[in-house]
Every structure is written in structure tokens, then in C-alpha cells.
């Protein structure tokens, strides 16, 4: 028996009962479609950690700063700052992180004990000091490969 034959078999029911069944099915489908919508659609709970990186001397935003989030001894994620110095990590596991900020020509900055909690965004502003010695000019090409 096809679905149409089953529906056409409802002709024995009074019109009112058919309408009630149809409305109930439509309401069920409608509410299930929106069951997982966040309470506040403007809030992005997946943004666990974000901030801005600036030059310590002239206070201008720094583009292409390499920011690494380390949980324990494991490198979780790495991002680059945008043209406005902004950066954001999404979908970070809750825990205590170490953040490493590196850019060629600037001294490396390490932020220890950055606590990330579920659905609680963290904002960190960092200012990098220019004039790093050649040995501290940021990551080499090999920095992005794990030695494991």
C-alpha cells in the first residue's frame, strides 16, 4: 500500500479529524526543525577565545601574528590575526591553555593559565614589543611540523 492509498483511506474520517491530524503532524515537524536553535542567535558559544594583537609602541593592530593554543603539552589549534589584529579560536575544548603569540620582528609573548570554559567566551588583548633579536623572530618553517 502506498502513502497516497493510506491517506485516501482517511475519507472515512470526518473532515475535522483529518484536519486535526494534519495540523498535529505539521506542528510536530515545525517544532522539531527549530528544536536546536540557540536561545540567543547573536551569541556564538563556539567562540571560546578571541582578542586583538597590537604593536606595543604605536598601538596599531598587527596582522599575521601566529597564535598557538596549547592544552597541556598538545598544540590544539593555531590561527593568524586578521588585518585589524583580531583573532579567534572556535570549538576549543574546556581547559587551561597556554597561548603563544609570535610574529617576525617582534618578541614572543606567552600567556599562561588561560582558562577556557564551556559557553564562556574569553577576550585577551596582547601588545607585542618590536625589535626581537634574530633568534626570536618567530617560527621557522619547521615550526609547523610535529616531530612525532
Number of separate domains: 2
Question: End-to-end span in angstroms?
Answer: 60 Å
Q: What would CATH call the homologous superfamily of the largest domain?
A: Carboxypeptidase-like, regulatory domain
SSE topology string:
HHEEEEEEE
Helix content: 10-25%
- The parts where pLDDT drops under 50 for at least 5 residues are 37-41
- What is the averaged pLDDT score? 75
Q: Work out the helix count.
A: 2
Q: Indicate the CATH architecture of the largest domain.
A: Sandwich
Query: What is the β-strand count?
Result: 7
Radius of gyration, in angstroms, nearest whole number: 27 Å
Helix-strand category = alpha+beta
Shape field: elongated
Strands across the major sheet, in which order?
Answer: 3-2-5-6
Can you walk me through this structure?
The chain is of the alpha+beta class and 148 residues long. It folds into 2 domains: 3-33; 47-138, Carboxypeptidase-like, regulatory domain (Immunoglobulin-like, Sandwich), CATH 2.60.40.1120. The protein is 17% helix and 34% strand. It has a 4-stranded antiparallel β-sheet with strand order 3-2-5-6, with no helix packed on it. Strands 4-1-7 form a 3-stranded mixed β-sheet, with no helix packed on it. Strand 2 (66-71) and strand 3 (74-80) form a beta hairpin.
Amino acid at each position: 500500500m502506498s502513502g497516497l492509498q493510506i491517506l485516501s483511506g482517511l475519507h472515512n474520517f470526518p473532515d475535522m479529524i483529518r484536519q486535526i491530524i494534519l495540523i498535529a503532524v505539521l506542528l510536530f515537524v515545525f517544532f522539531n526543525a527549530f528544536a536546536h536553535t540557540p536561545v540567543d542567535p547573536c551569541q556564538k558559544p563556539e567562540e571560546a577565545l578571541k582578542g586583538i594583537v597590537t604593536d606595543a609602541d604605536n598601538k596599531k593592530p598587527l596582522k599575521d601574528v601566529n597564535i598557538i593554543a596549547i592544552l597541556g603539552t598538545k598544540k590544539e589549534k593555531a590561527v593568524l590575526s586578521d588585518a585589524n589584529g583580531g583573532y579567534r579560536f572556535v570549538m576549543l575544548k574546556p581547559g587551561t591553555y597556554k597561548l603563544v603569540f609570535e610574529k617576525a620582528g617582534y618578541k614572543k609573548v606567552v600567556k599562561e593559565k588561560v582558562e577556557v570554559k564551556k559557553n564562556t567566551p574569553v577576550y585577551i588583548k596582547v601588545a607585542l614589543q618590536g625589535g626581537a633579536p634574530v633568534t626570536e623572530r618567530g617560527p621557522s618553517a619547521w615550526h609547523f611540523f610535529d616531530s612525532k
